[in-house]
Design goal:
211 residues, 36% helix, alpha/beta
């Protein structure tokens, strides 16, 4: 069966002990784009699934994850909502998401429907930068929302695939020459689109072996 490769990026709140998801942290946003057809996109910002307290967010993780949130566009003049400002307050950002974010179950249902739609008769295949992070977040949120995961249990770590092609564990995707727009970085949709472009470049190196 042919596959539709879908690039997915996640931004999360982290937790006091780590920046990971999903045990004690909430997903802030999820972005996705179809590899080879990046005009097909999905993006949602989500309400937190945990109480808004320091047990469920990490200052450093939030300082990255909140940079590209669109719900903050009208608030960035206030340094408390500016993820790169010393006065940044993660709890206030989470409160904005609590008010403006999509209900997680609704968002994950919409995401599943979108994945199914863009995949058609092919098998959707998850492409991420870090499977244990982005993949774990996605799988946990599907389970938390009682929505079946259309990707199943498989996925591909694009940087590891590139290292394998090069036969070099130190190979870096930057070697491909694509340049990220740092002003848009850490918006989950932008990152997913850029990752899809990296994936296309890696697949070209593989020739006809990607199916």
């Amino acid at each position: 069966m042919n596959q539709t490769y879908i690039s997915v990026d996640v931004e999360a709140s982290g937790s006091p002990r780590n920046s990971g998801c999903p045990a004690k942290s909430s997903m802030l946003s999820i972005g996705a784009a179809v590899v080879g057809d990046i005009g097909k996109q999905f993006y949602r910002e989500l309400k937190p699934i945990h109480p808004i307290n320091p047990e469920h967010y990490n200052q450093v993780a939030m300082s990255y994850g909140a940079r590209g949130l669109r719900c903050l566009d009208d608030l960035r003049h206030d340094p408390r909502y500016d993820a790169q400002h010393p006065l940044f307050e993660p709890s206030l950002v989470l409160k904005v998401l609590e008010q403006k974010g999509e209900d997680p179950k609704k968002a994950m249902t919409q995401f599943k429907d979108w994945v199914t739609s863009v995949s058609g008769t092919t098998q959707p295949h998850l492409i991420t930068d870090i499977q244990w992070f982005d993949g774990a977040c996605v799988d946990h949120y599907f389970a938390h929302s009682d929505v079946s995961n259309p990707f199943g249990y498989k996925g591909t770590n694009i940087d590891v695939l590139y290292q394998g092609i090069r036969g070099d564990m130190n190979a870096n995707l930057r070697d491909l020459g694509l340049v990220m727009d740092e002003s848009q970085a850490h918006n989950a949709l932008y990152d997913a689109i850029f990752q899809a472009q990296l994936t296309e470049a890696v697949f070209k190196l593989m020739g006809d072996k990607i199916r």
